[in-house]
């Protein structure tokens, strides 16, 4: 009887343990399901993960808690809340480390790498990726090893170590193929092809992509990946200068995306098809596709694609001599880029400067003169009426008139100075570039049978056209009164620094004082401040080989302060001062606005630039 009781107790305990283990297994399965669901339905995934977390905490089930944290981190990453994502992943990692589960720790390290990469925090991401690689190699898990190598390929590409990036991409591709994961193998190979194009190796890129095409064609329901491969084949052929082959691939991609109903991709493919047709001289087809790209992008609210299509249309109309359309598209592109309320007024000013608009110039000048005369006439009538009605205050009115007249004169002088500055900028920035475009186009026409030479000249024309667009954009920004606050100047500086440094993987910190940000800066000083900053940042990005840059900007007690400090290779100031136009231009601009510019640098010890100017 006693033995029977013991057996009953044993089987009851075994049943309880089995039931508990089954519950734990269900919780882990639900956490995995939430993780997988995050990319498709992040809200539902969040609810599942929170419920798993609640039940795991009630049971004090540490693995369940850690997996719930891991799923929540993935959910918040897909919601775009990267900081929250990092917090959950870090909590998951702490628990997994206590359970000594190398597999789970490696998995969380991979997830942390993904989030930090999306934040462009590549150096931190690399630490986690290397740790994940060690753990994956330790346990010999092929999927983990392969995923880690894919991430390391991306990170080394972003950090500029192309040799390591290629090696890791190739290892990842081989790993995915060994695992039978053809889809991810092809996606990784596409990343490798992009890297090869960045290294100006289009033939190598084509070799990789042609292998991708062969593999992808054998996969069912794979139209999207096939379209992406065709798009990148087109990019590689275009870089190589084989525009006919490029057009074939772009059209294939266009048709596949159209079939899938992916309108964002349709808009992009229409744009690159149009650009390639321009290169082939198929201007009517190019117009049709570029116009389609513009309209679809507009309907989707994709301003970046809309802007690119507008720029390409403006270039096309310039090539075909459709000046009115070209001018209109140029205006649209500037409006999209800078969101300027007075874009139409600027376009009229630009038209007055263009040689081919000489007839319009005379009409516009006559119209402006008539408006000025009309305003002067109205002003005189108002003054006469005031003299008759307010005779008692004649002396005060005369005094007010003199002050007002003096103010008007001051404003007119400022306006004239601004017009002269705009005229000078247009002449200096655009005159020589337009002359270069004219020369390049004449050479291309004379050597029309020499395809290589024509392509070279078209490339130069494209580069010069981009230079003109950048110059016009800056002139527009500098004269727009809505940009005359300190805050707007600092915001534009921050955007430019981000554009230069993030594209090159340079870590930078941009610090700005929060005082007097609404104070106004006149256009001349504002322009020169920004150009000094732009020259300094460009020089740092191109020549310093810096890893870290500190930027501080502030405005206090009517003084504007700027400092840029990098840890780059530095240079000999005296030698560079004699030879470099950049440093000389910075000093000339500082002198023009009576600013104080100090540049300190030594070879191997980085560079520091300090600038201050009084703002009246």
Automatic annotation (TrEMBL):
Q: Where is the Histidine kinase/HSP90-like ATPase domain?
A: 524-616
Does the keyword Phosphoprotein belong to this entry? yes
State the top-level EC class: transferase
A Pfam family this chain is assigned to: TPR_12
Catalytic activities:
ATP + protein L-histidine = ADP + protein N-phospho-L-histidine
Where do the TPR repeats lie?
146-179
Keyword set for this entry?
ATP-binding, Coiled coil, Kinase, Membrane, Nucleotide-binding, Phosphoprotein, TPR repeat, Transferase, Transmembrane, Transmembrane helix, Two-component regulatory system
What superkingdom does the record give?
Bacteria
Look up the coiled coil feature and give its residue ranges. Answer: 342-378
So where does this one cross the membrane? Answer: 385-404
- Under which name does UniProt file this protein? histidine kinase
Q: Which organism is it from?
A: Aquiflexum gelatinilyticum
């Amino acid at each position: 009887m006693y033995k029977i009781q013991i057996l009953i107790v044993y089987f009851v305990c075994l049943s309880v343990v089995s039931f508990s283990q089954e519950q734990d297994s269900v919780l882990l399965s639900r956490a995995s399901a939430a993780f997988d669901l995050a990319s498709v339905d992040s809200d539902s995934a969040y609810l599942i993960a929170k419920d798993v977390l609640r039940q795991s905490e009630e049971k004090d089930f540490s693995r369940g808690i850690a997996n719930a944290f891991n799923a929540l981190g993935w959910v918040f990453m897909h919601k775009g809340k990267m900081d929250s994502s990092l917090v959950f992943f870090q909590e998951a990692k702490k628990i997994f480390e206590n359970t000594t589960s190398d597999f789970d720790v490696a998995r969380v390290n991979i997830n942390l790498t993904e989030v930090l990469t999306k934040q462009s925090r590549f150096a931190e991401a690399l630490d986690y990726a290397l740790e994940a690689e060690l753990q994956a190699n330790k346990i010999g898990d092929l999927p983990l090893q392969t995923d880690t190598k894919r991430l390391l390929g991306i990170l080394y590409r972003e950090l500029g170590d192309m040799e390591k990036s290629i090696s890791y991409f190739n290892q990842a591709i081989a790993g995915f193929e060994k695992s039978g994961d053809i889809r991810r193998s092809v996606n990784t190979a596409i990343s490798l092809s992009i890297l090869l194009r960045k290294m100006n190796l289009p033939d190598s890129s084509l070799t990789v992509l042609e292998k991708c095409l062969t593999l992808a064609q054998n996969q069912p329901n794979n139209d999207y990946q096939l379209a992406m491969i065709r798009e990148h084949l087109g990019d590689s052929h275009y870089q190589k200068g084989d525009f006919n082959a490029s057009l074939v691939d772009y059209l294939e991609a266009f048709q596949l995306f159209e079939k899938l109903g992916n309108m964002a991709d349709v808009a992009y493919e229409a744009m690159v098809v149009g650009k390639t047709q321009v290169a082939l001289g198929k201007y009517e087809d190019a117009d049709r596709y570029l116009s389609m790209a513009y309209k679809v992008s507009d309907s989707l609210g994709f301003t970046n694609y809309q802007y690119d299509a507008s720029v390409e249309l403006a270039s096309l109309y310039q090539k075909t001599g459709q000046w009115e359309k070209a001018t209109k598209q140029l205006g649209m592109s500037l409006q999209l880029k800078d969101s300027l309320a007075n874009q139409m007024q600027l376009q009229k000013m630009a038209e007055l400067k263009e040689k081919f608009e000489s007839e319009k110039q005379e009409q516009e000048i006559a119209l402006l003169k008539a408006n000025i005369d009309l305003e002067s006439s109205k002003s005189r009538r108002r003054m006469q009426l005031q003299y008759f009605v307010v005779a008692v205050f004649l002396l005060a009115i005369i005094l007010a008139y003199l002050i007002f007249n003096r103010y008007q004169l001051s404003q007119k002088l400022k306006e004239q100075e601004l017009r002269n500055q705009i005229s000078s900028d247009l002449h200096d920035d655009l005159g020589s570039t337009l002359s270069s475009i004219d020369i390049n186009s004449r050479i291309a026409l004379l050597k029309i049978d020499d395809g290589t030479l024509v392509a070279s000249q078209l490339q130069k024309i494209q580069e010069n056209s981009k230079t003109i667009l950048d110059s016009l954009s800056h002139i527009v920004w500098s004269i727009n009164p809505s940009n005359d606050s300190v805050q707007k100047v600092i915001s534009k500086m921050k955007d430019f620094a981000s554009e230069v440094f993030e594209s090159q993987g340079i870590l930078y910190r941009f610090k700005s004082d929060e005082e007097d940000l609404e104070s106004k800066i006149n256009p001349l000083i504002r322009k020169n401040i920004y150009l000094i900053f732009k020259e300094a940042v460009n020089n740092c990005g191109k020549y310093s080989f810096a890893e870290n840059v500190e930027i501080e900007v502030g405005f206090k007690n009517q003084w504007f302060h700027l400092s840029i400090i990098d840890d780059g290779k530095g240079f000999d100031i005296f030698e560079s001062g004699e030879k470099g136009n950049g440093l000389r231009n910075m000093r000339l601009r500082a002198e023009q606005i009576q600013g104080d510019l100090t540049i300190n640098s030594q070879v191997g010890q980085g560079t520091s630039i300090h600038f201050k100017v009084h703002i009246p």
